[in-house]
Amino acid sequence: MAVVRSTRPPGLPRRLPSLTGVRFLACVAVFAAHALDAPRLFADPQLQRFFGELASTGTVAVTLFFLLSGFVMTWTAKPGEPARRFWRRRLVRVVPNHLLCLAPAAVLVAACGVGAQLTVGDGPWHPEAVLANLFLVHVWVPSSDFIVAANPVTWSMACEVLFYLLFPVLIRWVRRIPAARLGAWALAMVAAAASVPCVAQWLLPAPAPVAGMPQISLEQYWLAYVFPVSRLPEFLLGMLLARLIAEGWRPPRLRYVVALPFLTIALTLQMPAVFTFGPLSAGPVALVVAALAHRDLRGDGSWLSGDRMVAAGERTYACYLSHYVVIMYVTQLVTGPGAAYATPVAFGYVLLMAALTLAATWALYRFVERPAMERWARPRPPAATRPAVPAPASEPAGSTAGQSR
Hints:
By secondary structure, the protein is mainly α. It is 66% helix and 1% strand. The chain has 18 helices and two strands. It has a two-stranded antiparallel ribbon with strand order 1-2. The relative contact order is 0.16.
């Protein structure tokens, strides 16, 4: 059985709070991109077009999530942990929230048709696509029916499932790389990530654009954005960054690199649409992640590492899975599909979506995710090793309580 081994020297802290806090900012970017663009609530065409371009911030946020997954899992890997125990923790964290968000999404799509997904296509729902989504294998099929089935944002969780499955093997490889070659391997992953949209653009012409996605075909979108193998370099880059930081690499300070992802967004808006969806921002985002991690290691406090930001970051998985379901329901049951409103009214509906998302996030984390992790993330110790219940005060000394020590 494969064993997960740590790459973090014993003297370094296990937690890097800024990396948890920044997850909240990424989640806000994803919510804003979807809530402002997907329902198309704004009657002002120029403003709606602007929000459509702003949606590219959400794609960069997904790159940040993938990099953080690789970095944090590598940084916090427990020495000698069996792979099956690692997979168990991942399964317990992912599945309950996924099921509870997929169920209402599937009900809405079954009742209203695939148009309720606010993405592409129309007509009746496809039960086989929802079943594939249930097992998080739906994005392995280059079909719009499958890619966005029921809860469209779960495509990234399907990518994460591949990362989790490979992690016990990948970390053994990362640990064996000589320290002097880590930088070269990290640059290779940056190049591999950046090449994905290039390959999609050059090898997959776009004769029939997807509705709402000009100049990009379904096949290009699938290969450049949602195909799990295409996103693997970002996860590997995060793993390599963790090893680089552990080996003592000092990245540029945050103030010098924080603007780079936004400059990448501006650049991709001038390029073919496939580059907006592709992971072209992996390099700039990696520098931001490395700078934040090194800042925590130096002991430099920041607002990202504060208790409130960390608490918000810990709840981003519940927020990510639930927010699009909320948007779908508000659009179908409150605003009406296809309806557009004056700017103040449209913003009011966006605020309603945000409030309902916060409520769903709180409920999922408080009553589902945290209890599931506490109850099932670790195997229960054998009965012989469990602490015995203290004997009642009326029992004589030296009975059960004394024998349990």
